[in-house]
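[job 4471] stage=fold_predict status=RUNNING
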Amino acid sequence: MKKKSGFLWGGAVSAAQCEGNYLADGRLPSNFDYLPLDERRLKAVYKNQESSLLETKGSEVYPGRFGNDFFNRYQSDIKLLSELGVNSFRFSISWSRIFPTGEEQEPNEAGLAFYDRLLTELENYQIEPIVTLSHFELPVHLVKKYNGWGNRKVVDLFVHYAETVMTTFKDRITHWIPFNEMNMVLHIPYIGGGILFEEGRDNLSTQYQAGHHQLLANALTIKAGRKIDAKMQFGAMLAAGKTYAYTCDPKDVFAALQQERENLLFSDVQVFGEYPRFFSTYCKQHNLSLEIIEADQEILQENTVDFVSFSYYSSACTAAEETGIDRVATNGYNTLRNPYLPKSKSVWQDDPLGLRITLNQLHDRYRKPLFIVENGIGTQDEFSEGKVHDDYRIHYLKEHIKNLVLAVEEDGIDVIGYLMWGIIDLPSVSEGKISKRYGVIYVDQDDVNNGSHERYKKDSFYFYQQVIATDGKYAFE
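[job 4471] inference complete, writing structure tokens
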């Protein structure tokens, strides 16, 4: 690409989905470790039903507890990433591996030691770490005691955790992402915020209050980090994807506008340091009762982000009247099926031009460097004799990377890097199934953790290897 040197090509995983070994070295469970392998994963969790979810049952399978065994295989996994040619790798730190209940004053040294070894291994291969501090994960103790991010007390506990990690690993990590996809607290509240609903209560207010608490914790983490090391860079992170109007009917266009501004609410606050003007009216219209004090507003205003990172899997589509229109899955929620997009082997529709549109949208709105930290296709692969011929994944990556390059070279978008999601197969958030595969590296493991757990290079591995080696040019061949 015709761009300044230093573009980051890499991949991403999360601790909750890949590490496994959820009780190793003094760690205690997180909210994610209680998600069973069934359709309840994305549904709201109610307090009066908590025994059905927050108690371990021998008959249940909990994919977060075994992941893909990255905890024991990180050395060989990073060696594979080096062979792939990546110069960056995004991973998250498990809060409950550092502070098992979230309320300890002193960290679990064994947990810190694991991430020290992981960082050392990345440094040995000159792979830059991109670190997320909260990727859909918090100690389950805080869920049970405080209702997760619904309680302001969790803000200070998180900042203590963040300060501990940043102080321990200062000078070794430049790019920090305090929260993964903060806007998903509105779609998957238990996963995104550790929130338990209550029958007959104002649960929507709880979701927005939890989002506000995460915004506060994000700002306070930035404040602390800049004191620890002024070279640290902090990013917002959102689940992104342009929302199209289903038709050119002005009512549909306005419905799309409303959905987009709600989806961009939290990143707006992280970039501009204040809530957008529409939000006060929105709160009145939806009878939201939120505690936002003047001191909070000062903290948000004074500690904004340096860059905007985002996940992109597909675009969304909406209409003023959605009855009778087919729906399709996207990242963590459903949207209207776009009749102009083809069906793909994935659960969502394939819209590579939507990535270029989203890059332009976010650049025009925020005027900050952008960072694609998740992009990929989740689908089943056929594994035979140590090989996976995944031409569908190659097609998806090729077309999306083309649009990334065009956005940089023709549209002038400032992009820090491109990280494909789940670069090593891991259990998905939405389904908990490793059979919904994202990686260019295949893991010999089924949904209930049977298999050798050995790693194999898919055809897409060699494609992405060439893309990286040519700085994106190979996508046009």
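[job 4471] summary: The longest strand covers residues 233-240.
[job 4471] exit 0
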